[in-house]
Design goal:
With 163 residues, the protein is α/β, with parallel strands linked by helices. Helix content is 37%, strand content 12%.
Length: 163
């Protein structure tokens, strides 16, 4: 398989996949800034913010790279339904520190060592829900213990996790 290309744009369906809803096409970086600002707090330790943003980028890129929705006949790349995808709030507030980090790292994503496919980086808040992936609140605890973003990601996704 070819190496993924970071898309210029992403199309987000504002609802469940099989429900009528508006599709919004916007720059990929603006999408990630919105998701990160909707999913995490700008006051978190920077390493937790970076780890979460890398998971969010990888999740979105996995949806695009695998053509998850388009291969099923849909005309969008991802939804904003948090039961299956990640939070996106049309016209949502974007925090300046999150925006700056996204601008710096949006070309990076998580893979398994030796693979090119962006990792399906499942995550949950770790407070009201848990999953087989990154705990957003748990990443704060790990960052406060001094772990780097990649160490946080390896804690949740395994030692074969790399950028």
């Amino acid at each position: 398989m070819a190496s993924p290309v970071i898309p210029t744009y992403i199309t987000v369906h504002l609802g469940r996949p099989n429900q009528p809803a508006e599709n919004v096409t916007l720059p990929f970086t603006e999408y990630i800034k919105n998701v990160a600002s909707s999913e995490i707090y700008p006051t978190w330790p920077e390493n937790a913010i970076r780890a979460n943003i890398l998971a969010q980028i990888s999740f979105a890129l996995n949806r695009i790279y695998t053509e998850y929705y388009r291969s099923r006949g849909y005309d969008f790349d991802i939804t904003n339904n948090t039961a299956i995808d990640q939070a996106f709030n049309k016209d949502g507030e974007v925090y300046s520190n999150i925006s700056a980090i996204v601008d710096e790292i949006f070309n990076n994503y998580i893979v398994r060592r030796g693979r090119v496919e962006p990792l399906y980086a499942q995550f949950c808040d770790g407070y009201t829900t848990s999953c087989n992936g990154l705990s957003q609140w748990g990443s704060v605890t790990l960052a406060n213990r001094g772990l780097s973003p990649i160490e946080i990601l390896r804690y949740y996704y395994g030692e074969e996790t790399t950028l």
